[in-house]
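hey can u check if this looks right to u? its 479 residues, i copy pasted from the old doc so theres a chance i mangled smth
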Amino acid sequence: MNVNAVTAVLAIPAGAAALLALLPGYWLSARLNVLATLLTFLAALSLFFERPPTGPYVLIDDLNNVFIVVTTFVGFTTSVFSASYIEHELETGRLTPAFLRFYHAMYQVLMFAMNLALVTNNIGVMWVGIEFATLTTVLMVGIYRTHEALEAAWKYFILGSVGIALALFGTILVYMAAAPVIGSGPDAMVWTDLVAHADSFDPALLNLAFVFLLLGYGTKVGLVPLHAWLPDAHAEGPTPISAVLSGLLLNVALYALLRFKMLLAANPNALAPGPLMIGMGLVSLLFAAFMLYRRRDIKRMFAYSSIEHMGIVTFAFGMGGPLANFAGLLHMTLHSLTKSAIFFAVGGIAQVKGTQKIADMGGLTTTNPLLGWGLVLGVVAIAGLPPLGIFTSEFLVVSSTFAREPLLALPLALGLLVALGALFLRLNAIAFGEPRGQIHKAKGSYLPMFAHLGLVLSAGIYLPGPLVVWFQNVARLLG
């Protein structure tokens, strides 16, 4: 049963991708896409009840179980939103039937690649999965074939290639550190074996490896100064892909960093990875918070918001310890739910208004109340206001930092306040005031957006005991 569950998490999207590449027409392919992601999510849930034994290529523990469930759930809800969104794109001629087949097939390939990176016990296979996911999203970002979309895809490809090379070199250095102790061959790339023998590895090689890995995978996380691809990719690609990028792919790259952080922590002579992660996380938070004031495109604005929040999560995991790790894990989960919900709203708004320019979106709560108030609730959540769940995670990050490193708590709180001001400044222009811009027919499902926001609200009011215990176990694993 266990092996079948892991196999299903990989085989369902792989098989669906092959089938969707052949299926003509919107009606059947959109529903098959939703069905495939639902079955993948159900297979991921089954891993809660019984886990497969750890092997050279498969590892399921409390840490990656969090990422697998979040990834498959958001993948499912995004596919539901995508069905109505893509129908509109077909009707307006932005996508042709041939590109529709490509879009749905690539969506399932992306789910396969992310799941592969999460379930594997081999650091080489993990690298392959993350880079496969990156190349898939490059193709999807440029799917509209406009000059701007192709330019964004090309920039993403170039910067992603740099990240690919750096992360690969870091992985090779880890292998070189492990080979004299474990022996050459596949065993020197099995993560559980690496952690078990990490205290005997050459610390100089581990230190150098982590620097390359932080830069390489940090490119995928969107950390400053490696973030330049992210705003363009969000702005020019289909909105469901923006939701997947912000809510999922950034997390998968962060997961890889956390695995290697645990590896370094197991070697007492290696450098502490925490300060490097704290530095990049804090710089990302502050830079993105100030850049929010300069955005005129709604998708670019929320792309910078993603950079800000991944900075917060990286900062929390860099601080380490039970409370900061718990806060980072909770914040990462709630950010995935909230930011994808915001992009669901933004996708509908852009189609209703026929533009992504903030200046042409006034009075949304009057012209389109469901979309407008959905966006308001999403911004209130992502800004970290009570009673929504991100307030809890941000409060835990700030309080744990203030207790241990008070000087770091000041720029952290400053970044949060600056971002809050920018978001509400833009929200006022979009949601309230006199209606501006065109008004097209609204079309699409609001259920995924409000389902995500409902979960975020519930998390702010009450966290179930089993969820708290689970996250506490993961926090202890991370050290």
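The chain has a mean pLDDT of 89.
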